Amino acid sequence: MNYDFDECVDRSGSNSLKWDIRPGELPMWVADMDFRTAPEIIEALSERAAHGVFGYTVVPDEWYQAYSNWWQERHGVTFRKEELLFSAGVIPTISSCVRKLTTPAEKVLLMPPVYNIFYNCIRNNGRTVLECPLRYDGTAYEIDFDGLEQGLSDPQTTLMLLCNPHNPVGKIWDRDTLSRIGELAAAHGVIVLSDEIHCDLTDPGKKYVPFASVSEVCRQNSVTCIAPTKAFNLAGIQTSAAVVPDKHLRHKVWRALNTDEVAEPNAFAVQAAVTAFTKGAAWLDALRDYLYQNKQLVRSFLEAELPEIRLVPSEATYLLWLDCTSLHRDARELAEDIRQKTGLYLSNGVQYGCGERFLRMNIACPAERVRDGLCRLKRALRETEES
């Protein structure tokens, strides 16, 4: 089947966070896509809506089977039914785990630049952020293992939030890297909470490695957050799962989700996930091809038209990390200047930690809009040079 990712869907009037903008602006910031989800999902949700009764909903066996089969066939890891817990979103799960698995003032380790909401999950719950910045050599990012071991060995560090694949740098962590993280964390009594929501958005030919699949140490000392929402553009449905193989840790997470009342699905959450994982593979693979072409479009444009901006190599996600170091400007000021001059709305890198000279660009939109965004970016920078 052919899918029309070139269609410019009008999202105005839909209460879209992304498109709550001023006239003439182009939002390429928050991580949702401008594509309609897979036709099979639209059909399934339409049928559910047509039923007309939206009462309390249970999690059926087909939900567990859909998750289990997808991760086995797609990612080569087996999740048993008892290891899967329904949750109303990855961020609610992370916040609940921070509250349940740590105590006030204890430290939660992050490796910035990293998804900014992680900081909220920690600080809003009265815990302390411990940063172990990734090492950047001007081209790519790697883990500073000396710094990581130092942070994990701190007696006050009890939880680590891992982003796998990594947002915003688009890094797929390899098996050896994940194994080393797992061994260090377990040795120092630190639980690893792995956010793997971007795992299905790898470049064509690229595979991510589930943290829990690496070793028995990683498996037994981890909570993994997974969902169809990022890959299938279903964030507003609020549906996800937590995978917790260790029964004692699973009991704590189960209690956390139930205490916070995020363990029950809404009327559409189950059907959306089941349909995505049982009928959405062809659409997803077509999407991945399209996103990869958008990445190449950005890369070629920057090299030819804006060589002062470096695109950090990316293997996953539709979020591009733009190195603007040569401009010698604070990312907050730069992002606001670009928006004021052209209407192009990008995310400033400061909010992700260690991103004072970076911008984040969301390219999950028709290629026409990507070109528009790139032209606006060029215009903003050239106007700055001329002023």
What does this structure look like?
This protein has two domains: 26-39 and 281-386, Aspartate Aminotransferase, domain 1 (Alpha-Beta Complex); 54-279, 3-Layer(aba) Sandwich (Aspartate Aminotransferase, domain 2). It is built from twelve helices and 15 strands. The chain has helices spanning 39-51, 61-75, 90-101, 117-123, 145-152, 175-187, 216-220, 247-259, 269-279, 281-305, 331-342, 367-386; strands spanning 26-27, 84-87, 107-110, 128-131, 135-136, 141-142, 157-163, 191-195, 222-226, 240-243, 310-311, 319-323, 344-345, 347-348, 358-362. The longest helix has 25 residues, at 281-305. It is globular, with a radius of gyration of 21 Å.
In total, the number of domains comes to: 2
Please, what is the oligomeric state? Answer: single chain
What is the arithmetic mean of pLDDT?
97
**Relevant CATH superfamily of the largest domain:** Type I PLP-dependent aspartate aminotransferase-like (Major domain)
Largest beta sheet: what is the strand line-up? 2-10-9-8-7-3-4
Please tally the helical runs, counting DSSP H or I stretches of 4 or more residues: 12
Q: Which architecture of the largest domain would the CATH scheme give at its second level?
A: 3-Layer(aba) Sandwich
Radius of gyration: 21 Å
CATH class of the largest domain: Alpha Beta
Structural class: alpha/beta
Question: How would you summarize this macromolecular structure in one to three sentences?
Answer:
The chain has helices spanning 39-51, 61-75, 90-101, 117-123, 145-152, 175-187, 216-220, 247-259, 269-279, 281-305, 331-342, 367-386; strands at residues 26-27, 84-87, 107-110, 128-131, 135-136, 141-142, 157-163, 191-195, 222-226, 240-243, 310-311, 319-323, 344-345, 347-348, 358-362. The chain is an alpha/beta fold and 387 residues long. The strands form 4 sheets. The chain has a 7-stranded mixed beta sheet with strand order 2-10-9-8-7-3-4, sandwiched between helices.
